[in-house]
């Protein structure tokens, strides 16, 4: 269970109940019907060609049968948009119309971090509207001319939210004060600067672009100098604030995220106008950093959106994830490429570089040659490592033996770092051609560099899953005995037994999974069907031989059982089961049941639970036969076992007769 912070638990439950999970997920995934009450689509968290991502709105859960991810609507927002728990709850509460309360003792009002976040977002929303309105005024003609000269008309400016910060010292500051924002809120927003006489507008006489997080909320601004008497930097961005962290932000991500997910390709350009040019030219997966170089945190953002996970091995030429960087062809562009290559190992995606031969950026290319020229630039991309290799060679005189040897020493380690070992020899041969050297000599140099790199990193290689020698595999745990379920002494939740994934082809496992499926998905139908309810009353944890399923059944009982099922029934079971079983509960809650008529849910539940109880009785009968043999004929223990066996056999016949 995730810690809820200071938000009232009932309000969190209301958010889970009222937030339309199919609509929230449907913004990111194209969902289609998968039977009664079930939807499915391509998983946004890993690469797949056929849909294995399922959503059951009635249960309020989602689960991917490919990668194993699953949870409720809050966990989807957290996973998809990278939000902490409290922020995800607040975001969904706004969508669902739920007013959140905070527990006694928690921080309230402006002292609450979450409340301050909402105030800062609101301040940026007001500022965004203010800047947009100013762009239409007479003073902003210089900003409109700037956009028009670069091929951006009124519609393009509106699409990207372009605005104008008027000259003067306090136009925006006064506007925010009139809208009820306090001095501490103004200082925390990053929209103002502070001097000896108080606060004043940070952006003055500049063209501004709103910087949005992936949810679409404005969290900062980038501003371009326009007036000759402006002594500030050419581009000025929002400083670091509670809501704006430049190392985590990519301009245009709110517009590009859908294409990035569907095409699994991200184009990284260098400026705001380049993003505008790319999107208007049809390259709608373009983003840009905001006043900082592309770094490790940006890598994480891009990987998450593309589903660039360790579960998919990507090869050059495959349809895997791709990242395309655009750089200027000058020395600064080459340095940027080298920095990006240093991050390449953090991607599983293929990384490329798209550089115009004349050194023009996408905005200039579109302005001069049109939209198709921008697309052609992306089509001419080359692998990042090839660009870096050639850049490293360009600084040496390859006409001399000394220059070629020095160039080899510089380029060999780059080839050795190519992640796909299958193509290293090919690029070693290409390097030999570029240098005019014998392929065998170059291959030897690359191999030696790879060995040195492997030795340097071997001490840092993790053990277990993902690298190194894994420890001995644990034997599967035995089923529970007749004692109480094991409890975690710290959390009070049912302790998790680690075991291998249940085999769905095993008929016993399948019967247990279907039984838990109806308990989670159709509790009302079980209660309303007298026979199904009676069978449920006979079940105990020993009806399950699969340890994980036994624990889920314990959680069902601990949550009150079907008769006490609240609106967020699956959530109640998850809370009792604990975090290690969350994915399994979600999987069972979204697995389509093989019946297509809601009116027959009770009959189906009865048959499934009867099969589970029958299997349990069969095992008990076998145990009783063994007990009789061990006790010996005619003993009291044997007679008691025989009587119990007759009773169980009678119950088995009743179950099979319906």
What can you see in these coordinates?
The structure is a single chain. β9 (206-212) and β10 (218-225) form a beta hairpin. The model is unreliable at 107-113, 309-318 and 456-499 (pLDDT under 50). It contains 27 helices and 17 strands. The two termini are 39 Å apart. A 6-stranded mixed sheet has the order 12-14-13-15-16-17, sandwiched between helices. Strands 1-2-3-4-5 form a 5-stranded antiparallel sheet, sandwiched between helices. A 4-stranded antiparallel sheet has the order 6-9-10-11, covered by helices on one side. The chain folds into 5 domains: 9-96, Zinc finger, CHC2-typedomain (DNA Primase, Chain A, Alpha-Beta Complex); 109-237, DNA primase, catalytic core, N-terminal domain (DNA primase DNAg catalytic core, N-terminal domain); 250-375, Dna Topoisomerase Vi A Subunit, Chain: A, domain 2 (3-Layer(aba) Sandwich); 396-454, no CATH class; 507-657, Orthogonal Bundle (DNAb Helicase, Chain A), CATH 1.10.860. The protein is α+β, with helices and mostly antiparallel strands.
Task: State the secondary-structure class.
Answer: alpha+beta
Please estimate the helix content. 40-55%
Major beta sheet, strand line-up: 12-14-13-15-16-17
How many DSSP H or I helices?
Answer: 27
CATH architecture of the largest domain: Orthogonal Bundle
| Biggest beta sheet attributes | 6 strands, mixed
| Strand-residue proportion | 5-15%
Number of domains: 5
What's the Cα radius of gyration?
31 Å
The count of DSSP E runs of length 2 or more, i.e. the number of strands, is 17
Q: Which fold name is given in CATH as the topology of the largest domain?
A: DNAb Helicase, Chain A
Please state the average pLDDT score.
83
Overall CATH class of the largest domain: Mainly Alpha
Q: Please report the distance between the alpha carbons of the first and last residues.
A: 39 Å
pLDDT < 50 runs, ≥5 residues:
107-113, 309-318, 456-499
The general outline is flat
